[in-house]
Amino acid sequence: MLHRDKSFLGFIHPEFLQDFVNVRTLAKSDKPLRSISVDLYAKYISGFSKYVIYIQDQEGYYAPTELSVNTWLELTFSETKLFDSLIKIFEMLALIHKWILWIEDPKNPNKVCKLLKSIYGLKKASRSWNLHFDERIKEFGFTKSEFEPCVYTKFSGSIVTFLVLYVDDILLIGNNVPTLQSVKEWLSKCFQMKDLGEAAYILGIKIYRNRSKRLIGLSQSTYIDKVLKRFRMDESKKGFIPMQHGIVLSKTQCPVSSEDQDRMKSVPYASAIGSIMYAMLCTRPDVAYSVSVTSRYQQNPGEPHWVAVKNILKYLRRTKEMFLVFGGTEDEISVTGYSDASFQTDRDDFRSQSGYVFTLNGGAISWKSSKQDTIADSTTEAEYIAASDAAKEAVWLRNFLSDLRVVASISRPIDIFCDNSGAVAQAKEPREHHKSRHVLRMKGLCARQ
């Protein structure tokens, strides 16, 4: 057993303890969506009992995970003069220092084991693993990004190496193959891992490359096919837009009678929203607005809301082969932002909708569509609030890209385009007009900077 070989357990008779955690062995085949075999391996996971003994517990449970925007940034750079590789970690066991936990021995119920390393299913497992990985990778000379805790960088003269961590998946990117190989050798000494070679899939997203034209594409067509089949929309008509023109959704369309509510409970509304949302967050900014609107009614969806969700699925069926494209230009790498707003489009509380997208040499790397927190009194105010939200994202992008040292132009201000002349004028020169001065107090400083 893997955990016994790694000094996983220390044994004690159960009569000395009253509370302990039951465990079981879970066999799992962790096969990525590509033509490569990954060995079947076993995991110990905790379960059944809720009794856990913690001593000097001051670490908390939080463990960061990588955001898609950073992955797309890294992959965009890999299509310039860099190489990449995907690594799978099989052993996510970290030593336990500040807390104690006892578990039942799966092979001998008459014995209780003192846990020496964290196992899958524990509340602290992910955090323990992340702290353990952080310590080991820093020993090799990597530095954690100040603005994204799952991105590590290493600079040695003209040699640059990036490491992106997503739980137990690692994306390595660098401009020197021997250096990448040395990182893999170090990781293999520290963890049980497998080198999957050049990244063909990452988090279920297919990567297309055209080295000659310096292009890279990111597609979720396989994932979308699975979603369509799961919700029985794989044979439906193909939609042309994610949300039909003139469709207005509101809480007045939610079911009131118990019969209608019971009928809608059998509809996988929240599950469909979550499945579409993953595609939206990764590669499909074109459905961001429709997902934002339909996700507001998950607690008590009505038939019109479900029809709107199915319309998104129909649109994805027609456009499943569309994907994000990066690169293809010799120009200096630069970031550009665009913001927009719709005025009081929510029929329930009359709030406006904000939206923005940032591109890196034409390829979308960050986007968002969400309902505003306050009620805007005018289109200028709505646009100004949207521009302020975009400015916050621009600040983070600028800091993160500066940390990576790959975009020379990032030292200059990021251009954000807004299609409202009043909002642009307010951002350039503050005008203390009685109808807009409250906006300047709330959002003015961020947008102007």
What does this structure look like?
- It comes from Centaurea solstitialis.
- This is Reverse transcriptase Ty1/copia-type domain-containing protein.
- Residues 107-244 form the Reverse transcriptase Ty1/copia-type domain.
- By secondary structure, the protein is α+β, with helices and mostly antiparallel strands.
- It has 3 domains: 2-218, no CATH class; 221-318, no CATH class; 331-448, Nucleotidyltransferase, domain 5 (2-Layer Sandwich).
- It is built from 12 helices and 19 strands.
- The protein has helices at 2-5, 68-78, 125-139, 177-190, 221-230, 258-265, 269-282, 288-294, 303-318, 379-404, 421-428, 437-448, and strands at 9-12, 22-28, 41-47, 83-89, 102-104, 112-115, 143-144, 151-156, 159-166, 169-174, 193-195, 201-202, 205-210, 215-219, 324-327, 335-342, 353-360, 363-371, 415-418.
- The strands form 5 sheets. It has a 6-stranded antiparallel beta sheet with strand order 7-8-9-10-4-11, with helices on both faces. The protein has a 4-stranded antiparallel beta sheet with strand order 12-13-14-15. A 4-stranded mixed beta sheet has the order 18-17-16-19.
- The longest helix is centred in the C-terminal third of the chain and has 26 residues, at 379-404.
- The protein is globular and about 60 Å long.
